[in-house]
């Protein structure tokens, strides 16, 4: 295999991320969803009834961005906002029945995109790639990486 130029790794990582996001966005569009909306919907499928600020923090976006996305998804019938019974100034965001059905479509789209992206990879290679990506994410976040058992991971510092 040819040796990559300095900085090529980050370029390949960016390219793979962009291509995978584009492929997923095309699949999501079949269900009337746009890129980025899937992350918000999946966050609500894990914990339904979050505030916009909780969602913004969780997804790492600014409040105006999350507000726009929530409003679009509400207009599409996937989400609804409900005022808090304790504090009328606070709103919570919930998946509607259509939103819950859309979660299955999102998950199917993610699985199909991942299947295509990882075609030809053995299970061991998938785990190594996952660990490497988690380590990259931790490095860039300034946090520590706690991977799988030492016997199952590759020494990325070698």
UniProtKB/TrEMBL annotation:
Keywords: DNA-binding, Transcription, Transcription regulation
Coiled coil segments of this chain: none
Alphabetized SMART domains for the sequence: HTH_MARR (SM00347)
Keyword Transcription in annotation: yes
Segments forming domain HTH marR-type: 1-138
SUPFAM superfamilies listed in its UniProt record: Winged helix' DNA-binding domain
Protein name: MarR family winged helix-turn-helix transcriptional regulator
């Amino acid at each position: 295999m040819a040796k990559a130029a300095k900085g090529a790794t980050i370029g390949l990582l960016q390219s793979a991320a962009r291509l995978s996001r584009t492929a997923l966005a095309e699949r999501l569009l079949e269900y009337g969803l746009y890129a980025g909306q899937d992350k918000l919907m999946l966050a609500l499928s894990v914990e339904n009834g979050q505030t916009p600020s909780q969602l913004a923090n969780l997804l790492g976006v600014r409040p105006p961005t999350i507000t726009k996305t929530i409003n679009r998804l509400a207009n599409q019938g996937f989400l609804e906002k409900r005022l808090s019974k304790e504090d009328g100034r606070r709103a919570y965001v919930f998946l509607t029945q259509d939103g819950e059905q859309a979660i299955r479509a999102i998950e199917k789209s993610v699985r199909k995109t991942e299947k295509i992206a990882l075609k030809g990879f053995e299970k061991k290679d998938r785990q190594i790639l996952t660990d490497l990506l988690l380590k990259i994410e931790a490095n860039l976040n300034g946090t520590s990486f706690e991977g799988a058992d030492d016997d199952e991971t590759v020494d990325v510092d070698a």
